[in-house]
Amino acid sequence: MYVEADLVFYGQPLANQNELFDFMADELEKKKYVTKDFREAIKLREKEFPTGLSLGDFNVAIAHTDTTYSRAQKLVVVKPEQSIEFKNIQDLQPLDVDIVFGLILNDSDKHLEVLQKLSNILQDRNIIKKIKNVKSQDELISLMQNHFNE
Q: Where are the bilayer-spanning segments (predicted)?
């Protein structure tokens, strides 16, 4: 799975999870990467199984849903203009998330492989620092492609 430039979004003015998931669904539906039921499925999945992760001074979410709502293998990266509240996967407490990774997987066998790759990237403090300090769309695209498309 590769990070594609047209699925990386920087500085999006999204106020909450609903706006974020609607934005993601709109972008993915336009490209026919997901079914029409994806929008509600990802919202429901997040309510039932929160995906927020605290990485110390930087928080991420790895949002995803069942493979039946996906028509492709894609990674969506959204660094919103301001943090969006998610629930922490560990203690279910509110967590202000700085970047969201949306896993669009139509092959359940790939799920663990993609999570492992993303986990390796997120454990690297240097990469996290770079992601945190990104100042533009092009910089975010380049950074994600350099570390994910190896």
A: none
